[in-house]
């Protein structure tokens, strides 16, 4: 377990150190956020704050994760969450880059973003399906059973990956919101993997490897919070939100715990659901709205709740749900 | 370990539920904060926000801690942290009550506060000294040795108790500052006690009891954060800060880990030290100041750092130091 603690600390220190180097550089390169015209009025003050800050945690997480990965673990299990994080992060990076260069708030068109995401997800799904330690079944938490999906495992995993990445992206709308809830998720997954490592001696190294990667994400994202907390000095951008979504779904994939995601990543889920419900209702009623604005955190904002309070509420909800998740892995 | 998780969740839910009952009542009873005239100018807006909110976490922590305490543990070891928390909390309660009723910012005079604190601390010190499972020695973390203080254990513990309680009180100066750092401390101590319970079968129930109490404090304080985070709807008051300081020192006392406090409660320590240095320097130089204002968080505030950023910085520092502390209890 010391290995996990050292990983968290190393990633944390690296992210803290990277902030004062990257933030002024992003500013000089004019990677400032072009605020979405569809967002709340009050967000106009955020114009000009640099984005693409996700690199502040993505790079330290990669470095710390590689340094502290246990040497004797199956290399594909070690690599898969890295590939998910870096792969989706890269798609987000391209999107951010185009967004800034074209001075458009929306970057790639939805289709241009979705096609590479789906292709990457299917590739990862096939890889996992063919791997002897993952295969075609998911663990059903709290019930101690496994659910064999057969070949349907591949589209299901692709859906989970694309869904998680885009939900994380939607949740990234308030200072410290995705970073805070994400850090709690990664810390919980790291602890769950450490408990699984202790309980399964035959898979100890593999679970430990995932605990280390999750710890690297925890420490790095917490370090990033130093700069992203309200009032934010930097935004994570799509490179950041895609990396967080990809990393989380990747950790769930190699531990076959994807069914745990709706619980621990509940705040991501409601961001997506509120968005889908809002659009569907709007179309069906030809112009009526259920929420004042979607995703849900903007609804709370327009209802008069201070930004910092909404972020705390989401953090506390995530903590409580992660504690419930931990109940499934303890005696 | 499930017992600890249930305790955290129960205390969290109780504190969340108690907030909307107690806060309006405190307002009606006019237990509003009279802001210290010596604090920063910007704090004047906080006039009228109810104080004594510490009851929102102290009561749920007591209830959850009692409900989930393991039945077979030594009852004195179970009771000691409760006594520390409730005893100092009660002194704080009296102070708050007088403060509000007299409309004075400072409540009891320093001496009126200190005398009962010292008496309570000596009593607790004697109790611990005479208990066969505690005795006169402290664990030296990271070195695996014990330091036998003999009868000096009693004044040392009294000093630790009084020092921790008053340092916690000094740290309680920004929205969510003491609650956030305190929650991190309690969560860490709960995890450390759970690890000690697994490592020491002969003391398993006693360590588990302390892990449960620490978990109760964690959950309750996190629930309180819902209302105390910036912009605060309620302040914890001396009843809250004394209860947090007392609980933390009490947990350290029964686990004989008092020497761990300067590390995990470092932010409390620097609050006290900065205050002492400021006053000593001021007296020695006949009017010069080292810090723009003491305790240190007010110095950062007057240096132009936003309140929420200072709180995050203190939280992150505490997290990192708690991770370092955990290194001393893991393989």
TrEMBL record, chains A, B:
Organism placement in taxonomy: Bacteria, Bacillati, Bacillota, Clostridia, Candidatus Alectryocaccomicrobium
Keyword check for DNA-binding: no
Biological process, per Gene Ontology: cell division; cell wall organization; peptidoglycan biosynthetic process; regulation of cell shape
Pfam families: Glycos_transf_4 (PF00953)
Binding site residues for Mg(2+): 169, 238
Name under which the protein is recorded: Phospho-N-acetylmuramoyl-pentapeptide-transferase
Known function: Catalyzes the initial step of the lipid cycle reactions in the biosynthesis of the cell wall peptidoglycan: transfers peptidoglycan precursor phospho-MurNAc-pentapeptide from UDP-MurNAc-pentapeptide onto the lipid carrier undecaprenyl phosphate, yielding undecaprenyl-pyrophosphoryl-MurNAc-pentapeptide, known as lipid I.
Top class in the EC scheme: transferase
NCBIfam families cross-referenced by the UniProt entry: mraY
Keyword field: Cell cycle, Cell division, Cell membrane, Cell shape, Cell wall biogenesis/degradation, Magnesium, Membrane, Metal-binding, Peptidoglycan synthesis, Transferase, Transmembrane, Transmembrane helix
Pathway assignment: Cell wall biogenesis; peptidoglycan biosynthesis
Reactions catalysed: UDP-N-acetyl-alpha-D-muramoyl-L-alanyl-gamma-D-glutamyl-meso-2,6-diaminopimeloyl-D-alanyl-D-alanine + di-trans,octa-cis-undecaprenyl phosphate = di-trans,octa-cis-undecaprenyl diphospho-N-acetyl-alpha-D-muramoyl-L-alanyl-D-glutamyl-meso-2,6-diaminopimeloyl-D-alanyl-D-alanine + UMP
Species in which this protein is naturally found: Candidatus Alectryocaccomicrobium excrementavium
Membrane topology value: Multi-pass membrane protein
Locations listed in the record: Cell membrane; Membrane
A GO MF label: phospho-N-acetylmuramoyl-pentapeptide-transferase activity
Transmembrane segments: 6-26, 47-69, 75-94, 114-130, 150-171, 183-201, 207-227, 234-254, 260-282
Any single GO CC term annotated in Swiss-Prot or TrEMBL for this entry: plasma membrane
Enzyme Commission no: 2.7.8.13
Major subcellular site: membrane
Gene: mraY
């Amino acid at each position: 377990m010391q290995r996990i603690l050292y990983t968290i600390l190393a990633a944390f220190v690296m992210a803290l150190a990277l902030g004062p180097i990257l933030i002024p550089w992003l500013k000089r390169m004019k990677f400032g956020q072009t605020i979405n015209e569809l967002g709340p009025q009050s967000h106009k003050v955020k114009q000009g704050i640099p984005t693409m800050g996700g690199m502040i945690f993505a790079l330290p997480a990669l470095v710390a994760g590689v340094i502290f990965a246990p040497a004797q673990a199956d290399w594909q299990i070690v690599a898969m969450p890295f590939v998910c994080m870096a792969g989706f992060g890269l798609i987000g990076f391209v999107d951010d880059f185009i967004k800034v260069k074209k001075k458009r708030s929306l970057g790639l068109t939805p289709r241009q973003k979705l096609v590479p995401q789906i292709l990457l997800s299917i590739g990862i799904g096939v890889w996992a399906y063919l791997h002897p330690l993952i295969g075609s079944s998911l663990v059903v938490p709290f019930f101690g059973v496994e659910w064999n999906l057969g070949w349907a495992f591949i589209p299901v995993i692709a859906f989970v990956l694309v869904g998680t990445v885009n939900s994380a992206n939607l949740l990234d709308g308030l200072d410290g919101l995705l970073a805070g809830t994400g850090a709690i998720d990664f810390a919980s997954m790291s602890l769950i993997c450490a408990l699984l490592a202790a309980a399964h001696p035959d898979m100890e190294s593999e679970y430990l490897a995932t605990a280390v990667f999750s710890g690297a994400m925890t420490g790095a994202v917490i370090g990033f919070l130093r700069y992203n907390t309200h009032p934010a000095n930097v935004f994570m951008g799509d490179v950041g939100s895609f990396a967080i979504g990809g990393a989380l779904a990747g950790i769930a994939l190699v531990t076959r715990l994807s069914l745990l995601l709706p619980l621990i990543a509940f705040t991501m889920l409601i961001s997506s659901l509120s968005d889908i419900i809002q659009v569907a209702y709007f179309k069906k009623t030809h112009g009526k709205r259920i929420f004042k604005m979607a995703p849900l955190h903007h609804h709370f904002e327009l209802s008069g709740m201070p930004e910092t309070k909404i972020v705390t509420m989401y953090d506390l909800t995530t903590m409580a749900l992660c504690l419930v998740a931990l109940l499934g892995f303890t005696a």
